[in-house]
Amino acid sequence: MTVDFDFDNSYARLDATFHRPTVPSPVAAPHLLKLNRRLAAELGLDADQLDNAEGVEIFAGNRLPTGAEPIAAAYAGHQFGNFVPQLGDGRAILIGEVVDREGRRRDIQLKGAGPTLFSRNGDGRAALGPVLREYLVSEAMAALGIPTTRALAAVSTGEPVYRETALPGAVLTRVASSHIRIGTFQFFAARGDDAAVRKLADHVIDRHYPEAAGAANPYRALLQGVCARQAELVARWMQIGFVHGVMNTDNMSIAGETIDYGPCAFLDAYDPATVFSSIDRNGRYAYANQARIAHWNLARLAECLLPHLDPDENKAIEAAQDVLSGFADAFNTAYLDGFRAKIGLQTPQAEDATLIEELLGRMAQQNADFTLTFRSLGKAAESGEADGALRGLFADPTAYDGWAVRWRQRLAAEPRKPGERRVAMDAVNPAIIPRNHLVEEALAAAMTGDLAPFERLNIALATPFEDQAEFTDYAGLPPVPETAYRTFCGT
Fold it and tell me: Which of 217, 291, 297, 441 is the most buried (most CB within 10 A)?
């Protein structure tokens, strides 16, 4: 039985300056670790056809399905503020695009499938730990309602990869609306290839922002659309305590999806200065800096588009600045609306921002757990009898008491009944997230061949807003307070 992906490869049809033909490198003994059957169904694929020897060969890169046109995409990027004119897919190979059951175009990419022209002397491979981390976290983000790349499958390769030590190898099949990044535009702009920038922009408009095509200036409308999506995305990251960890321009998707889950992690105790990435020594990508960095990245995109915003350079700069100036308002609106919902407020009032920031400030001072504090607020909004457990999350419980008085006064002006309010709050405040210690425990077990903790955590994370009796051990505080947790890029 042959697996049919029904590919329609629009990016591969762009000329050779955008990508290089790249065939995945076969591996010795591939084994299917996880198949995302629900996502397969979304993509219009038959999961039963994939859950067999042929599917394993495809996910490992040993066999190409009919219609595949494997390519490695070219892009550049600012990495920690330093521009690198050529990066590109060094260990990822786009095998094709499918149109899913809802008419959305989706990339199918093999990550860790061998070297490409852009590997920069690397082996193009991925280790098991980073592959399973990306699978867990990207699928958790999807369940949390955050725009994200997805994980279709993970396979082990039967071969080691060599980093500081030998590690088991693996390949992730990643799904995205596209893999076009801000850095993709930078690649061509840095070379002065305005025609390629325009061609790329036209492709992005057609694929992701069709409403921009009818605007007076489609490229200005494109910039506005990307800014709006990034503002919404970063606000939603912050509402669940997510720290991306490496917001380089080559890791920022033009489609407005979360991409590249290397040094990412989630807050336990709330601290806006939290940094998880081992290489972010100056806190550039700290939790509280994410909106500022998104704006900086968008300014780099605007620079690429300047020749297409207006033939007069001064007017082009003015147009770009005008669009970029709207980012702060868009982010602040999305941020405030999201946190307003998290504390049970439905009708906006002027004092809401102060109320929210006061809570966050007290959480930071008192080492209150981010996820549990907001989840517990739903119970407290329904009944004051729940205050005891919530107070206990603050090092000094009286810090909560003073804020709670003003919060309840504010809730009294809201139209919802207490029970309805709790339901609404529980729908935006997850009970379970991919806590760092849970992810590490699952990955450590997987390295010994035990996938049961990975499977169990994956199941729990699929319904994060539900109180799941069988997963209460995932919904509590970490067993040891987090002090210096560090993540790595996985390359």
Answer: 297
Amino acid identity of residue 251, one-letter, is N
Digit-coded pLDDT (tens) for 372-405: 999 999 999 999 999 999 999 999 999 999 999 9
Residue 104: left if φ>0, alpha if ψ -120 to 50, beta else—which one? beta
385 DSSP β-pair partners? none
Give alpha helix (H) positions in 116-155: 128-143
What CA–CA distance (Å, rounded) separates 124 from 24? 10
As a whole number of angstroms, the distance between CA 50 and CA 1 comes to 10
If we measure between CA atoms, which residue out of 264, 286, 272 comes closest to residue 433? 264
Residue with tokens 């995205």: 176
Mean pLDDT value across the chain: 95
For the entire predicted model, the pTM comes to 0.96
Cβ partners under 8 Å of residue 143, min gap 6: 461, 462, 463, 464
- Per-residue model confidence (pLDDT) at position 482: 62
What is the chain's Cα-based Rg? 23
Buried (b) or exposed (e) across 403-436, using 16+ Cβ within 10 A?
A: bbeebeebbeebebeeeebbebbbebbbbbbbbb
Say which range, 7-11, 273-277, 306-310, 418-422, has the weakest mean pLDDT.
Answer: 273-277
Chain centroid to CA 444: 23
pLDDT score recorded for residue 281: 80
User: Rounded mean pLDDT of 424-445?
Assistant: 97
Question: Active-site residue numbers?
Answer: 250
What is the C-alpha to C-alpha distance for residues 36 and 150, in angstroms, rounded to an integer? 9
The rounded Cα 333 to chain-centroid distance in angstroms is: 20
CA distance 110 to 131: 11
Task: Give me 41's structure tokens.
Answer: 């169904």
| Strand, coil or helix: 32 | strand
